[in-house]
Automatic annotation (TrEMBL):
The keyword Hydrolase applies. This is Ugl. InterPro entries: 6-hairpin_glycosidase_sf, 6hp_glycosidase-like_sf, Glyco_hydro_88, UG_Glycosaminoglycan_Hydrolase. Substrate binds at D89, D150, G208, T210, R222, W226, S340. It comes from the Bacteria. Belongs to the glycosyl hydrolase 88 family. The active site is at D89, D150. SUPFAM superfamilies: Six-hairpin glycosidases (SSF48208). GO terms for molecular function: chondroitin hydrolase activity. Keywords: Hydrolase. It comes from Paenibacillus mucilaginosus 3016. One of its GO terms (biological process) is polysaccharide catabolic process.
Length: 379
């Protein structure tokens, strides 16, 4: 059994145990070696649903299918109760739950729910400014003109909706937002801002900033990872070579700035000492994004061998040095993730998104199971 296979079997076994542990709750972040469990009210609940669908695709075990189906029912109720309107993370929530069910089973109700979710995300489009507002209500005095790099991972929901309906509005909004993100969130040295502020009335640029990073001008590693994967996915849907080039630039910066064990600290600019926090979830996201990037680089591309080697080193380190293999009672899959170091919120623990992208990475490497960001058969 290969290292990847061992890690997958360990992850699937832990996820099976977690079905009973979690019940109808959703794992959020760790606290004291246990997951904090939420109702379906935050931005992270889709990752548990996505893990259940991944495990079902891998194993065929009906227990995963039943649990995943219950999460989709929960997402149906959440949308009906209008509890998804104050942030942009609709793609994280519904791509990995309802859209996953559509991709795997062709369930028409799941497809309809996913399209409804795309319409909810469209309500965050601010035509005067030309962007998708990340957080808060329209007109929010602090966040009304704010975008964040995480949103690149929510755009695939809109691209997918265009492919399903043929309605140009979905694609147009996604492309405009991706172009603005590329221009203002990605810096000339291939690092990235976490957030950027615009005048909400006319879209004039104001300044870069951060909510999670070390300082406004630093490079928050999870944000850099979202950019790697998000721009590669925008390339998949649009074939705009600028998006692929942006993903490649972000990825090279990410790997060139890793420490010796090839797993990221929480911010590339944070002073490194014995207490500097890691973010294993950033490396898991970057690994999944690098696999997507490699899918679009042919064998003659000068960076292909570099990224293949970097990916191998990073995933091997995640499995050998950061996973909970050998700890059968562990609830999480990856140790040493960080949620918000600045606010001391779970700065060194399990992260539900880290677990999801770790499993997605392993399954894509070992079985070619690609996750739920695009329609099957596009490879």
């Amino acid at each position: 059994m290969t290292l990847w296979q061992q890690a997958i079997e360990d992850a699937v076994g832990k996820t099976r145990e977690n079905i009973n542990r979690f019940g109808d709750k959703f794992p959020h972040v760790g606290a004291g070696d246990k997951y904090i469990l939420n109702d379906n009210t935050d931005w992270t609940e889709g990752f548990w649903s996505g893990m259940l669908w991944l495990c079902y695709e891998y194993s065929g075990d009906a227990a995963f299918r039943q649990a995943a189906g219950r999460t989709v029912d929960s997402f149906r109720r959440r949308l009906d109760q209008n509890r998804v309107l104050d942030h942009h993370d609709i793609g994280f929530l519904y791509s990995l739950s309802a859209k996953a069910q559509w991709l795997i089973e062709g369930d028409e109700e799941a497809r309809k729910l996913t399209l409804e979710a795309a319409d909810v995300l469209m309500r965050r489009w601010r035509p005067q400014g030309g962007f998708i507002q990340a957080w808060g209500e329209e007109g929010d005095p602090h966040n009304g003109g704010r975008i964040i790099i995480d949103c690149m991972m929510n755009l695939p929901l809109l691209y997918w909706a265009y492919g399903q309906t043929g309605e140009e509005k979905y694609r147009n909004v996604a492309v405009i937002h991706a172009d603005k993100s590329r221009r203002f969130l990605v810096r000339g040295d291939d690092s990235s801002y976490h957030t950027f502020y615009f005048d909400p009335q006319n879209g004039d640029s104001i300044r870069g900033g951060t909510a999670q990073g070390y300082r406004d001008g630093s490079t928050w590693t999870r944000g850099q990872a979202w950019g790697i994967y998000g721009f590669a996915l925008s390339y998949r849907y649009t074939k705009n070579p600028l998006y692929l080039e942006t993903s490649r630039r972000l990825a090279r910066f990410f790997y060139e700035h890793l420490p010796e064990d090839s797993v990221a600290y929480w911010d590339f600019d944070a002073p490194v000492n014995g207490e500097t926090r890691r973010d294993s979830s950033a490396s898991a996201i970057a690994a999944a994004g690098t696999i997507e990037l490699l899918a679009h680089l042919d064998g003659t591309h000068p960076d292909r061998a570099y990224f293949e080697a970097a990916l191998q080193r990073s995933v091997t380190s995640l499995v050998e040095n950061y996973s909970t293999m050998g700890r059968p009672d562990a609830e999480g899959l990856l140790l040493h993730g960080s949620y918000s170091v600045r606010e001391n919120k779970s700065p060194d623990d399990y992260m539900s998104w880290g677990d999801y992208f770790y499993l997605e990475t392993l399954l894509r490497l070992e079985r070619g199971i690609p996750g739920y960001w695009y329609e099957r058969g596009q490879d």
